[in-house]
Specification:
heterodimer, A: alpha/beta, 25% strand, globular, B: mainly alpha, MetI-like fold, 2 domains, two-stranded antiparallel sheet, 2% strand, flat, disordered C terminus
Chain lengths: 242, 359
């Protein structure tokens, strides 16, 4: 039983061939780290999983639903796929709690009280219940990103997608976000993590995928890939960044 | 810091230059006005007498002399001032001197070479306004504000709707909105007023009238309100479109990935942010509309429906005296100046970051 399945996915941006035939399956409790040079198509791959990017060719499935079928109600499916962005993308005109309750109210139809309760619960999960009524502009980058994680978690998704979530953070704020993600992984959340944090990939992920120039070069156990990189391109990539 | 007695003298000299400049402008402007007011504003002959009086001449020439002194001293000495503050005082004194000389020269020219008697009779003849009375002007100012306010409010609502249509990914939805916007932005408002007035009555056979409580708005007034709404909507639509497009793409992506529909994302995530950003340009449009309400003079308003410009024209027709236009201009300023201040205050607040824009 797979949660997410990609079949022969291609993506073109104009003449730029970004994804070149991706086949991929994500199973429950998988924590998949996606690494690779910039421009290799990692983020595009992640964003096709909830169809923020529509594949030019190929199919995307969530459980048994084909997302690339125009008849599919994407809004319904997207509640099962939480995503966290590099730029946080919190709603600046809403407090931390309101950022979370908005979709609980409008999409899941929870009542005010239940939504607020769940928001506080998720904020507590990321250690920010005391910031519930602050606006994003008054939070640090790390805190904003943790609110964004809480916002995605509050929908009770089956998969969490992380798109370079620490890349826009000051170095001293990265760890608090990684800690939250590690705890999520330990709790058994299924996660796809596009990242430049090799420490996180090695320690917290149970699968790793190396992408280069729009193709999956190698997929396997993170430690094995770090310690004995078989592929020449992976060896070169690791030697440049480690 | 001032350290030597010589530097102390320079600083005192800078203050003196500033006083010269300020006094020059005060004499030319304030002095002349005071002299005129002391001679009396009614009848108009008193105003002329005041302007041509020897007191006015003394005040003017004194102001001019001080102004020239401030210019020469200020611009020749500002470089040697010991502190930044005293340098600025010297420059400010010189600039005030320029303003005083410029204004003083115009007033002097007016006194000596012009025809103050006829000019004041036609443009500053407070007496002819008296018969009309303050309540009539207040009512006209009120009508100006009502016309502009209704136009702006309705235009904002319709304009937001149009903006959302122009942002559709479907050409068949965008096209009619673009046609509408281009039509109303591309034709003169005065022509729109005329064509709608006759279009309603001759074309459609209706004479639009509305009543709010005890107040009845006649066909001309009602047509004007409708046209101001339609016209403002076209401009507001472009303002809203730019505002919505200025919201980061990630906001829409975040909302959609939480399962919100496109309309939900627009309503709860994008538009609230866009509205904050477009408040200053919309207020600017409002100021412009206040003045554009004057175009209803081409329609036949009933006497109790007069706005400032129609009242001025009627007053001029009754008395052959243009002081009514001067009074109308004053009326517009009373309404627009506070608004212009409000626009500037909001923009300043936004620049200082108290109103958050973006994540």
């Amino acid at each position: 039983m797979t949660l997410v399945r990609l079949e022969g996915v291609h993506k073109w941006f104009g003449n730029n061939h970004v994804l070149k035939g991706i086949d991929l399956e994500i199973v429950p409790q998988e924590v998949l780290a996606v690494i690779g040079p910039s421009g290799s198509g990692k983020s595009t791959l992640l964003r096709t999983m909830n169809l923020l990017e529509e594949p030019t060719e190929g199919k995307v499935f969530f459980e048994d639903t084909e997302l690339t079928d125009v008849r599919t109600n994407l809004n319904q499916v997207r509640t099962h796929l939480g995503i966290v962005f590099q730029a946080f993308n919190l709603f600046p005109h809403k407090t931390a709690a309101q950022n979370i309750t908005l979709a609980l109210d409008k999409v899941l139809g929870l009542g005010d009280e239940e939504a607020r309760e769940r928001a506080l619960q998720e904020l507590k999960h990321v250690g920010l219940e005391h910031k519930a009524d602050e606006y994003p502009g008054r939070l640090s980058g790390g805190q904003q990103q943790r609110v964004a994680i809480a916002r995605a978690l509050a929908m009770r998704p089956k998969v969490m997608l992380f798109d370079e979530v620490t890349s826009a953070l000051d170095p001293e704020l990265i760890q608090e976000v990684l800690d939250v993600m590690k705890r999520l992984a330990e709790e058994g959340m299924t996660m796809v993590v596009v990242t430049h944090e090799m420490g996180f990939a090695r320690e917290a992920a149970n699968k790793m995928l190396f992408m280069d120039e729009g193709v999956i070069v190698q997929k396997g156990d993170p430690r094995a890939m770090f310690d004995r990189p078989e592929h020449e391109r992976l060896r070169r990539f690791l030697s440049r960044i480690l | 810091m001032i350290e030597t007695p010589a530097e102390g003298r320079q600083a005192a000299f800078a203050r003196l230059i500033l006083v010269f400049g300020a006094a020059a402008l005060g004499l030319v402007l304030g002095g002349t006005i005071l002299v005129v007011v002391f001679h009396g504003l009614v009848p108009y002959e008193n105003v002329v007498e005041g302007l041509l009086s020897s007191e006015a001449r003394i005040v003017l020439y004194a102001g001019l002399a001080l102004g020239v002194a401030a210019i020469i001293l200020g611009f020749s000495r500002y470089r040697v001032m010991p502190t930044k503050a005293s340098r600025e005082q010297a420059i400010a004194g010189g600039v005030l001197g320029i303003q005083a000389v410029f204004l003083g020269a115009i007033i002097l020219l007016f006194r000596e070479a012009g025809d103050p008697d006829r000019f004041v009779f036609h443009f500053f003849n407070v007496e002819v306004l008296r018969d009309y009375g303050i309540p009539v002007f207040a009512q006209a100012a009120g009508n100006t504000v009502i016309l502009a306010f209704v136009g702006e409010l309705g235009g904002i609502v319709l304009g937001l709707l149009l903006a959302l249509l122009t942002l559709s990914k479907r050409a068949v939805v965008r096209a009619p909105a673009r046609v509408y916007i281009n039509f109303f932005r591309g034709t003169p408002l005065i022509w729109q007023l005329g064509i709608f007035y006759f279009g309603f009555s001759l074309g459609l056979g209706i004479r639009p009238q509305i009543s709010v409580g005890p107040i009845d708005f006649g066909p001309a007034y009602t047509t004007a309100m409708i046209v101001f709404v339609l016209n403002t909507a076209a401009y507001a639509a472009e303002v809203f479109r730019a505002g919505i497009q200025s919201v980061e793409r990630g906001q829409m992506e975040a909302a959609r990935s939480l399962g919100m529909t496109y309309p939900q994302a627009m309503r709860h995530a994008i538009v609230p942010q866009a509205i904050r950003r477009v408040i200053p340009p919309l207020l600017n449009e409002f100021v412009i509309l206040i003045k554009d309400t004057s175009l209803v003079v081409i329609l036949g308003l009933a006497a109790n429906e007069y706005e400032l410009s129609t009242l001025a024209r009627q007053g001029y027709a009754d008395t052959f005296n243009a002081t009514f236009f001067t009074a109308a201009a004053a009326g517009y300023l009373v309404v627009t100046l506070p608004l212009i201040r409000a626009v500037n205050a909001v923009e300043k607040r936004m620049r200082s970051g108290l109103v958050t824009v973006g994540a």
